Amino acid sequence: MRYLVIGAAGHAQEVAWSLREMRGGLAELLFFDDRVPAGPLCSGLGRVLGTLDTVAAHATSEARLVLGIGRPRVKAAVVRRLAALGLEWETVVHPGATIGPNVHLGEGSYVAAGAIVTVNVRVGPFATINMHCQAAHDTELADFVTLHPGARLAGGVAVGRGVEVGSAAVVLPGRTIGPWAVLGAGAVAVHSLAGEETYVGIPARPLVRLAQGAA
């Protein structure tokens, strides 16, 4: 199987490594990136063949796309950009991740090494559950969500479209995070949070209001 990895920076190489481990080393990995120059990657996982505009030249019927991008808004833009190719997006789960029963993983999603997704969890398309994250029972992640390494979601959490949860951030049980919100690294969502804002601290508060209060 030929895999067209979209992105070639560090995160994309981690996703590609996870895919290779998932496939027992049997994966042809071709990388495409608008910013990383063409040539071999230092990880030895493959070569950058060109920009995203060159993906179509390699889009055979046997090929699948792999999303190697972490930022939610960039993910959404790239998925729209490549939609006309009509290729399927691979769902990547590192063998070192723990996936419980009745877990649904959407197309193009990624679960990294050391992550734990327990029971009755729904993960939307193109969501990222990074290294050593935890998503507890009855949690729902909408499409394009990104959990950075070590983020923890307690039971019954609902995470809206395009939310970004920073490294080691925590969301307490039953809370809701609105679409396109950002929960900063190490923050704790004690209450539900509205969308389209950035939150920091313990308990998590809107960054803009904190900055205005300090002025």
Model description:
It is globular, with a radius of gyration of 17 Å. By secondary structure, it is of the alpha/beta class. The chain contains three helices and 24 strands. A hairpin with a 6-residue loop joins β3 (39-40) and β4. The chain has helices at residues 10-22, 72-82, 207-214; strands at residues 2-6, 28-32, 39-40, 47-50, 63-67, 92-93, 98-99, 104-105, 110-111, 116-117, 122-123, 128-129, 134-135, 140-141, 146-147, 152-153, 158-159, 164-165, 170-171, 176-177, 182-183, 188-189, 198-200, 205-206. The chain starts with a strand and ends with a helix. The protein is 15% helix and 28% strand. An eight-stranded mixed β-sheet has the order 6-9-12-15-18-21-23-24. Strands 7-10-13-16-19-22 form a six-stranded parallel β-sheet, with no helix packed on it. The protein has two domains: 2-90, Rossmann fold (3-Layer(aba) Sandwich); 91-201, UDP N-Acetylglucosamine Acyltransferase, domain 1, CATH 2.160.10.
